[in-house]
């Protein structure tokens, strides 16, 4: 597959869409190719915390919850920088923009909290060797693909999404960035049996946020009073985060994310897929889920 020459246009106000290249069978952004060796050879530390998700599965939400827990609910500390600066995205590599999540992470003092969208088989081996704690969030395929489609529309470095119908076909075939949703959620589900992984579900976080925040705190060995847990819940509600420039990605340069096309934080609900799917599309994806998650014990709710 052709590797894209990743660069801004002459007016520097727009950016070329990336293409996809396979790395060990997983489609990733072509811009990442030259940075793959540093990513694969990343040196995790024993006290690292990695937040991993399939894209648009509640990543920023769990990041902010974790940061709030780590800082005892201190709002000022959590407003020290945008979320993408507080928790480096180790998959990120754009040489022409001097962007390297690995370099950002390497420059951080311990303990670090890091972010990745990598499937389990592409995670840098040092995370397993160091037994670093990992929090994984999974979201039902229908809402996930809708959110991912709208993200592709506004994230100008991502591949062109095409129509909704085209994007859904590519998603179901695993021909989207970071690969198959089915492989991703199943791979991490199975990895939790032999590694310190807290596996959460987006739908549980929506239905009972207090309970899930408490789970995260316990996983991080942090004890917080009820009043602080309530503060974390209120601060990380969707509308609050959507209005917060430290979490809503409006501080990211507009050449990367165009919020006039679609906001980075769009709906944050369970069931919005019903406004996009036809009955036939819904049934096809249900069938695929039944087939590809069979025997895993994984089940997802598509409405609350």
TrEMBL record:
GO terms for biological process: sulfation. Its EC number is 2.8.2.-. The keyword Lipid biosynthesis does not apply. GO terms for cellular component: cytoplasm. One of its GO terms (molecular function) is aryl sulfotransferase activity. InterPro entries: P-loop_NTPase (IPR027417), Sulfotransferase_dom (IPR000863). SUPFAM superfamilies: P-loop containing nucleoside triphosphate hydrolases. Gene3D superfamilies: P-loop containing nucleotide triphosphate hydrolases. The keyword S-adenosyl-L-methionine does not apply. Residues 46-297 form the Sulfotransferase domain. It is found in: Cytoplasm. Pfam families: Sulfotransfer_1. Keywords: Cytoplasm, Transferase. It comes from the Eukaryota. Belongs to the sulfotransferase 1 family. This is Sulfotransferase. It comes from Anolis carolinensis. The lineage of its organism: Eukaryota, Metazoa, Chordata, Craniata, Vertebrata. The gene is LOC100560139.
């Amino acid at each position: 597959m052709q590797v894209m020459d990743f660069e801004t246009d002459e007016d520097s106000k727009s950016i070329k869409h990336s293409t996809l290249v396979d790395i060990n069978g997983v489609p990733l952004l072509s811009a990442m190719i030259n940075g793959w060796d540093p990513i694969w050879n990343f040196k995790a530390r024993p006290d690292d915390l990695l937040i991993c998700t399939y894209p648009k599965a509640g990543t920023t939400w769990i990041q902010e919850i974790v940061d709030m827990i780590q800082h005892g609910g201190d709002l000022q500390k959590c407003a020290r920088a945008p979320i993408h600066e507080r928790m480096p995205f180790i998959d990120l590599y754009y040489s022409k923009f001097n962007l390297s999540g690995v370099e950002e992470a390497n420059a951080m003092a311990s303990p670090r909290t890091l972010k990745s969208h990598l499937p389990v088989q592409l995670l840098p081996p040092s995370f397993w060797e160091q037994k670093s704690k990992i929090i994984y969030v999974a979201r039902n395929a229908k809402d996930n693909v809708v959110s991912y489609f709208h993200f592709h529309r506004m994230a100008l470095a991502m591949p062109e999404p095409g129509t909704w119908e085209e994007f859904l076909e590519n998603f179901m075939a695993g021909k989207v960035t970071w690969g198959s949703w089915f492989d991703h959620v199943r791979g991490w589900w199975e990895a939790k049996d032999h590694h310190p992984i807290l596996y959460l579900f987006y739908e549980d976080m929506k239905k009972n946020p207090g309970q899930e925040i408490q789970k995260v705190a316990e996983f991080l060995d942090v004890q917080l009073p009820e009043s602080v847990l309530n503060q974390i819940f209120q601060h990380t509600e969707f509308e609050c985060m959507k209005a917060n420039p430290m979490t809503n990605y409006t501080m990211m340069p507009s050449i990367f994310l165009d919020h006039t096309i679609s906001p980075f934080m769009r709906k944050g609900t369970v069931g919005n897929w019903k406004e996009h799917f036809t009955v036939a599309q819904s049934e096809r994806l249900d069938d695929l889920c039944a087939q590809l998650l069979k025997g895993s014990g994984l089940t997802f709710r598509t409405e609350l």
